[in-house]
Amino acid sequence: MRMRRKKNLEERLASFDNIILIPRVTDDHRSIVAEKEYIDFSELFGNSNPVHMEIGCGKGQFMFELAKRTPDINYIAVEVNESVISDACKKAKEAGITNVIFMKCGAEILSKYIKPASIGKLYLNFSCPLPKKANENRRLTNVRFLEIYKEFLTPDAEIHQKTDNMHFFEYSIEQYTLAGFKLKNISLDLHNSNFEGNIVTEYERKFSSAGMPIYRLEAYMQPNT
Predict the structure, then answer these.
(1) Beta bridge partners of 77
(2) What pLDDT band is residue 32 in, cutting at 50, 70 and 90?
(3) Angle 198-204-210 (CA atoms, 0-180°, nearest 5)?
(4) What is the mean predicted confidence (pLDDT) over 180-207?
(5) How far apart are CA 200 and CA 99, in angstroms?
């Protein structure tokens, strides 16, 4: 279901001090990414703590809980939907969460703003599977995106992915392999496994309550890839 656009959305977003607003990309993103404008994380967060990222943070439920559990980690929460991210910014401010900064942009231009080898962990929670073949290169686990992530992930970084879609999960495994990643901690039914510390997202609760299995994996880069 498409979320209704909020009134005065631009003004609302501009009023938050916990978001980086990136202009909407209308031209070829490759030419835009070529000119770098790296974010200084130390200046942004006021400390030198490690930085992790979630792409497609939605309303921020997963990010908020993770940030509370790990206050010594800074988080960049990426979301392209303006209405959704405005709600997340508001909730973070009300909850007093200071180690999360939101970033409104698409994943395809992240390497313009994120320094190489600066993100220690990447979360992809319930990304849209975009099942039509014509949309394959827009899937967040397509090799095209995995190569972008490689640019800013640290050598020992991991990608943690969860989805309710079996076909998308299988597709993602293929793409990780093609991009030179190795996989570990693969679960075909997360909620009936012995995995500890799982943070349940809004989508996850909905799908799990309907009896759908949750798929999860961790991907990491091989040396010299």
Answers:
(1) 54, 102
(2) confident
(3) 125
(4) 94
(5) 20
- The rounded distance, in Å, linking the Cα atoms of 141 and 174 is 9
**For residue 11, what pLDDT band results from cuts at 50, 70 and 90?**
confident
- Could you tell me which of 177, 187, 175, 172 has the C-alpha nearest to residue 222? 177
In one-letter notation, the amino acid at residue 68 is K
In the prediction, which pLDDT does 152 show?
98
120 close to 52: Cβ distance less than 8 angstroms: yes
- The structure tokens listed for 194 are 């012995």
Alpha-carbon distance of 23 to 122, in angstroms, equals 23
What's this model's pTM, rounded to 2 decimal places?
0.93
Local confidence band at 24 (pLDDT 50, 70, 90 cut-offs): confident
Phi first, then psi: give them for residue 177, nearest 5 degrees. Answer: -65, -45
Six-digit token string for 24: 């909407």
CATH topology of domain 48-221: Rossmann fold (3.40.50)
Segments making up each domain of the chain, as ranges: 48-221
Amino acid at residue number 60? G
Separation of alpha carbons 88 and 91, rounded Å: 5
Residues 142, 183: contact at Cβ < 8 Å? no
Residue type, 158: E
**Residue whose tokens read 């039509």:** 132
Tell me the average pLDDT across 71-77: 98
Judged against a pLDDT cut of 90, whether residue 96 lies above it is answered with: yes
Rounded to 10 deg, the angle between the 143-152 and 166-178 helix axes is 60
Distance of alpha carbon 129 from alpha carbon 132, whole angstroms: 9
